[in-house]
Amino acid sequence: MARSIRSRVEPRWHGSQHRGARTTARPYAVLSWHCSALLLGIAVLSLGARDASAAGDVDFSRDVRSIFVEKCYSCHGPDETKREGELRLDFESDVFAERDAATIVRGKPDESELYRRLVTDDGDQRMPPPDSGKVVSDQQKALLKKWIAEGAEWQEHWSFEKLAKPEVPKGASGEFVQNEIDHFTLARMQAESFTPNPAADRVTLIRRLSFDLIGLPPTPAEVDAFVNDSSPSAYEGLVDRLLASEHCGERMAIYWLDVARYADSNGFHGDNPRTMWLYRDYVIDAFNSNMPFDQFTIEQLAGDLIPEAGRRGLIASAYNRLLQTTQEGGAQAKEYYARYAADRVRNTAGTWLGTTMNCVECHNHKFDPLSMKDFYSMAAFFADIDEPAVGGPQHTKFFTPEQQAKLEQADARIAELNEKLKAQKSEEDQTAVKKELAETQTQRKKVHDSGTDLVITNVRATPREIRILPRGNWMDDSGAVVQPAIPAFFGRLETGDRRATRLDLARWIASPDNPLTPRVLVNRVWTLMFGTGISGDLRDAGTQGVLPTHPDLLNWLSADFVEHDWDVKRLVKQIVMSGTYRQSSLVDNEKRSRDPYNRLLARQNRWRLDAEFVRDTALSISGLLVRKVGGPSVRPYQPAGYWMHLKFPNRTWQHDTGQNLYRRGLYTWWQRTFLHPSLLAFDAPTREECTAQRARSNTPLQALVLLNDPTYVESARKFAERIVQEGGDSVEERARFAMRQATSRAARDVEVAVLSDLYEQQLKEYSGDKEAAEKLLATGLSPSESSTDVTQLAAWTDVARAVLNLNETITRN
Amino acid sequence: MENYNSTQLSQTRRSFLGRAGGGVGAMALASLLDPKAFQVQAAPAQSQRWTGTVKPLHFAPKAKRVIHLYQAGGPSHLETFDFKPVLAKLDGKAMPESLTKGQPIAQLQGQQLRVMGAQHPFKKYGEAGQEICSIFPHLGSVADEVAIVRSMFTKAINHDPAHSFMNSGTSISGAPSAGAWWLYGLGAETDDLPGFVVLSSVGKFGQAQPIAARQWSAGFLPSRFQGVEFRSKGDPVLYVGNPQGITRTRQQRVVNAVNKLNELRDDVVDNPEIATRITQYEMAFKMQASVPGLIDISDESQETLDLYGTKGADGSFAANCLLARRMAERGTRFIQLYHRAWDHHGGIKRNMAGTATEVDQATAALITDLKRRGMLDETLILWGGEFGRTPMAQGSGRDHHIKGFSMMLCGGGIKGGVTYGATDDFGYNAHENRVSVHDLHATMYHLFGIDFRRFTFSFQGLDFGLTGVETPRVLTEILA
User: Fold this and answer.
1) B6 vs A586: CB contact, 8 Å cut-off?
2) Residues of A in contact with B33 (CB under 8 A)
3) Range of B390's domain?
4) What b/e readout covers B219-251, taking b as 16+ CB neighbours within 10 angstroms?
5) Residue A740 belongs to domain spanning
6) Structural domain contains residue B24
7) Does residue B32 form part of some domain?
8) Residue A37 and residue B280: Cβ atoms within 8 Å?
9) Per residue in A724-768, pLDDT tens?
10) Is residue B38 part of a domain?
């Protein structure tokens, strides 16, 4: 259905001409583990644990694995030191290995030792042992029995399974079914006797799409155009328009900047500035130009190793320098090199593999197929990066084509003049040439200095030696030296005698053979459009994450994504074109009680906008928003003294003036230790570590920000000018106008009455206190463009404040 | 294609389970972050006041709140609580290499290591005869109330990661600080003030090190549990002041209109988040009055001001101690006072004495004041830094030291008049009854009725707790 909308074909950097490495996957049976707490959650989320009397087959992943994990693995799991009776139940080969008493006989529960031990009355024989405190419920016993009776089919952990495209469960048709996604969701709904919600009304749809695709509310004119567009392609046309908007890249970038931990400061101790914004703009451009995700991946991890990637590759390679670093005197180099190595492993794993490798920094994993050797071998890929352990990083200058041309021009002229100088005989002539030479050199320096700094990946002559650090202790040199390698569980990079490089790692991460990368990306993009993932845990797709509610859908979308050249915009379009996406988010009591967390996707979700979009929305409604894309980070108003704890050197925030006060939230200067407080209040992450999932809180501090932060008061003031200017003549008309601007819909009379009352009361007050009205209207630096009486304008400013504070104004539904 | 007639969905509302308290929204949030939340949030709270997840408590609690007097920068244990006569004898001599070889070291990297004796004499205080440096006479006067732990050790030798370790039990960013854990687990006893508050002051003796907001971050817990900083200049809490020209009445009208419109919207869309939003606006509006009320100390007697040695809310440590007591009275769960003053790489003799005058009287005053108000038994006070300082000289100062340092605890179920644990003769290694930061946290939990084993949060598939992966020890020896 979805047309590819990639704007141009990009080089992919996969080709074997680049010292290509192949991976050899080794066959493995995936061990699986689930912490009991998660299982409890899943039981609720999937509308109640399956019970054996329910129709349909027992599914190992959904129904059975959890019982093994919870009840058996503490003695029969991967941890050798705890294992009893030489029996392990985490590998298929072990479970079905020949033993005196066969653990499981497929199809025959009564001949299976495992089942016999579960149900025996003999306390000495019974499993789990009575003194373990673990009890397998009757329901669980029945499930196990049924699973064995049905053939005891074993499955690998969902995200480690090789990606394959499952059959689309076609069959249903009707209004709801717009594309493949809907077949999957509808099948699941039907199995649970659910029906999908009707599609949302068009006002809701355009508002939803606008927030999801560009992070801004639609204007009333845009709403009208869509509502009145009777063509069958109206919806798709809207989607295409939004996907083509340069603001789409900004919206998508925010999510990426969270996982890659982009910031304008180094994070530790003095939290000193460093210039990284060209990387931020690279990310925006990549999404806007719809760069294939595999290429995007490879350029960031190893753009510096691909000469053909040129300037863009070098800028992308700044990814490797985004980590937290220190300039603290007295920091020991060895310790900080160890910290940086670990940070990079955590971030690479978190960003692309959706897997936490945090625990294997200090010990082999108890439940996951990851070892300490894997952790340090992964770190070794980055050992070629040239960087100070302690101190400020070296910046590289980048030039715009215009600057570049000027530099080249100057260089040519300087060369010419040098030649000329040699040719001149008389002192007088020489002086003249020298003078011009000096001028040209000064000119050149000026152009050079005006270039943009960026910390990119520079490579050392010899990679640093990386050892396994016992218990993560950087002082302990007793561990073995390791070479760069991907986690052994996933196979091996075939590089022959050549040391594997970041480029090899990058190509493996972005290879179709990697079972994790596509699933992780698809799940996260899905989350941007639904509020939650198909797998609810965006941070961990590993064995301890949350099982997907629709595993086949996730697999299908992921495989389809890879098949279609990792085309991100196509994926987004696929999702938003679905009937599943278009559903209303309203929920009736029955649905809410049966599926409180919407795991069946029988409705859309609603949520409070992300921090940056809360800001963008207010600025946009007020008319203040400056829609410039990219450029250096900016400084909006911030309370005085907020940086008092920053030291070495002391710093005070000086807000910008002019246009830079009204830029989108994502361009705000990102100071890790003291992130702008109004972004922080709405759960923007400090980006010290990979953030795959933002919290979504609802706090009094948010109310204080929207009520009192000068940015919002100024927005209200400018909004008030628009209300008076454009909103008609009567109080009611103006109130209606205000509501429409902020919520995209027509106001109800009762709402108009509330706002009109507020206006009249405040007007009365300000009429008796003109000075206060003037004070209020003096908030913010933007000049007033209204000749309206100040008391009226102040009263409308309060109405505007109320409207900008509405839950609905900052909600996507 | 689209169905405009979705109003039938909105006909039934308000009757759904847990609807009254907006509980489903809250639960949905909690569950998004932690599937385990199902276990602990059996019933949605009726009030929007967060009442915690540890319900019931694992055992009977002693303490109700924490006041952490955080001496940031690393105060020297050798000039506070750890008397080492050997150092005086060997002053200026080479430090035994057997102790220092291969050990982490900060600014003294590559330098000759020489012993430095205590720069101020110690005295015995109280009936228990607690040894405390004589530059802390007021603390001495309450020596029988306090327990001194002389055998702390920590893992990180630079300020920033060491603060993270002390606050969150790990030096990797992104973990919740202790205050966030307390608030998450126990809730607060106030709904018009934050449950976790941070105040700070800067000393005049020696350099003040930076401190990051991550030290009071909620980490991977919901952000409502993060610490709220009270400031001595500008708005005491960010954005708590009305915009210029807005009176309380005018603000109230705006808030009322917002809440009325939110209610009207809720009638149509039946969204539990709206009920929560309404309550948050009510709380915010209350905070706008209660915060100024809290910091307005004009109702304190002159005697009280004299006790603390402060004239008013001037951002000093003494003023902050008084505010801490006022917060304690109003139900704040976790109060953290940073005094950024103790990084004495040079001039330690003068600088320790000077910094002591900034905190000594007020610390003792807080203990005395809480005691006479009958609140000391239920208030756990913690006094100490992120690490200690080397027995070796760094010129006229001391460098960072993590292998042994001291911490003082008081009130809230702590036994008074006790000194616990010991470092070696040089004050270098904690060697008797060693106490890790995780042991300290486990002990604090214990006093609040929390079993550290049973208080975790599932993040990235792992059960994270404040006290780390290895089993910590509750210091029963210092419990009353």
Assistant:
1) yes
2) 693, 695
3) 43-241+301-478
4) bbbbbbbbbbbbbbeebbbbbbbbbebbeeebb
5) 708-812
6) no
7) no
8) no
9) 999 999 999 999 999 999 999 999 999 999 999 999 999 999 999
10) no
